[in-house]
Design goal:
Layout lengths: L7 E9 L5 H10 L14 E8 L4 E9 L10 H5 L2 E9 L3 H17 L5 E7 L19 H11 L2 E4 L8 H17 L3
This protein binds guanosine-5'-diphosphate (GDP).
Guanosine-5'-diphosphate (GDP) binds next to helix 1.
Keywords: GTP-binding, Lipoprotein, Nucleotide-binding
Pfam family, one: Ras
InterPro entries: P-loop_NTPase (IPR027417), Rab_GTPases_membrane_traffic (IPR050209), Small_GTP-bd (IPR005225), Small_GTPase (IPR001806)
């Protein structure tokens, strides 16, 4: 791979309800950091990250866009989705409402994005309901199997993650990127 900065540039969008952790996932991916109290008015809009897909021997530059607090406007639509190859559809495993609302977000993606877009459903904040006796735990409202089942029904990839601990954050992007590279190989 000597001399090659990257083989592909892929646009990703991150969508889902306010406060599910979209900005935090983006910051974790690009900056390996976590902010307990991010300023909601300073929504991170964009981040870029190089990842390697070893079995393909490929370096991929991810360009990730976050809705950055515009969830309530729902006017982002076409320009936001244009050219996107991947989408993280995020809910909070401690908020059933955010999981139910993911249906509306998916409908929006389906309406506006390229039909070949790869979408991964991400159940975020699993650190909150881990069983380690730390303070600040919250009960899980969406069992893993339920997220998994709905993702399967809708043809989405699926992962549970934590922007706080970092668990599965890069893995979510890598999983989606693998799927996109497979589609590119098949000429889709
Ligand atoms: P957004 O509105 O979807 O972009 O959500 P933010 O990234 O602003 O996060 C909303 C709140 O949830 C903030 O207080 C974050 O610190 C917190 N948060 C985000 N991700 C996680 C996570 O994985 N675990 C925990 N415990 N808190 C999180």
């Amino acid at each position: 791979m000597a001399g090659v900065a990257w083989h592909y540039v892929l646009k990703f969008i991150i969508t889902g309800d306010a406060a599910v952790g979209k900005s935090s996932l983006l910051i974790r991916l690009t900056d390996q950091r976590f902010l307990n109290n991010p300023d909601p008015t300073l929504g991170v809009e964009f981040g870029s990250k190089l990842i390697t897909i070893p079995e393909e021997n490929k370096v991929v530059k991810l360009q990730c866009w976050d809705t950055a607090g515009t969830e309530s406007f729902r006017s982002i639509t076409r320009s936001y989705y244009r050219g996107a190859a991947g989408c993280l559809l995020v809910y909070d495993v401690t908020s059933r409402q955010s999981f139910l609302n993911a249906r509306t977000w998916l409908a929006d993606v389906r309406e506006h994005a390229d039909p070949h877009l790869t979408c991964i459903l991400v159940g975020n904040k699993i650190d909150l309901c881990s069983d380690d006796g730390q303070p600040g735990r919250r009960p899980r409202e969406v069992p893993t199997e339920e997220g998994e089942r709905w993702a399967k029904e809708e043809g989405l990839l699926f992962v549970e993650a934590s922007a706080k601990s970092g668990e599965n954050v890069e893995a979510a992007f890598v999983q989606a990127t693998r799927d996109i590279l497979n589609k590119i190989k098949r000429g889709m």
